[in-house]
Amino acid sequence: TRWQNILRYAEKYNVDKILTTGDYCADTMSDGEEYLSKIASQLPMGSNVIPAMGNHDMAKVRESGEALTEKEAFNNVLKPFVEMGNIYADKTYYFQDVQFKQSLIGDIWNYRIIVLNTYDGADWTKAHIGQAQVNFLIDALKTIPTKSGTQAYGVIVMMHGLEYAASKTADALTKIESAANFYQTKRRNNHA
């Protein structure tokens, strides 16, 4: 399977983290739960997978577009990763501070990985980022340590793909751009 290939590749090349951006099921979560259980059973405790939610992972009823609740989605998709020690989260969006060691030169790079759920609305077929998640994003950006020792923090924001039709994503993209502008302004002011 794709997961087995990814895990073999990660082990062979000593990959620091595996960042996945959703759609762990083919249609709706009703057909994906068994697959997710299988994936979870293949991952070693504390493995380096950091998952994001995809729109199909939020799907409850295909025909109506009805989405899982935040709690249902978290329990179905992310809770197994929390239980294995991969991530520390209680929602379908979260952040995690990680270190990557550059083995050839001995440097340690610090990153805040911010994971967003771009389908947190009532309809899993439409991209949406609610205000609570926007507030979370702003707080996650505000609280990034400026340095850890001599190393500055980098930021990785990951999410499932947004459709680029303005009518479908203008709201979500505007919110993300506002948070990004806030963060860039904060960084410039801290370095001034």
How do the strands and helices of this protein lay out in sequence?
Elements: H1 2-12, E1 18-20, H2 29-42, E2 49-51, E3 59-61, E4 66-67, H3 70-83, E5 94-102, E6 107-115, H4 131-142, E7 147-148, E8 151-158, H5 166-191
Parallel strand pairs: 1-2, 6-8
Antiparallel strand pairs: 3-4, 5-6, 7-8
Helix pairs in contact: 2-3, 4-5
Residue stretches low in confidence (pLDDT < 50, at least 5 long) are 164-169
N- and C-termini, Cα separation: 50 Å
- The strand count comes to 8
Radius of gyration: 17 Å
**Helical element count?**
5
Structural class: alpha/beta
**Residue share in helices?**
40-55%
Arrangement of strands in the largest sheet: 5-6-8-7
Order of helices and strands: HEHEEEHEEHEEH
The largest β sheet comes out as:
4 strands, mixed
Mean of the pLDDT scores? 74
Strand content: 15-25%
| Shape verdict | globular
Structural summary, described in words:
This protein has 192 residues and is an alpha/beta fold. 40% of the residues lie in helices and 20% in strands. The protein contains 5 helices and 8 strands. It has helices at 2-12, 29-42, 70-83, 131-142, 166-191, and strands spanning 18-20, 49-51, 59-61, 66-67, 94-102, 107-115, 147-148, 151-158. The strands form 3 sheets. It has a 4-stranded mixed beta sheet with strand order 5-6-8-7, with helices on one face. Strands 1-2 form a two-stranded parallel ribbon. α2 packs parallel to α3. It is globular. The model is unreliable at 164-169 (pLDDT under 50).
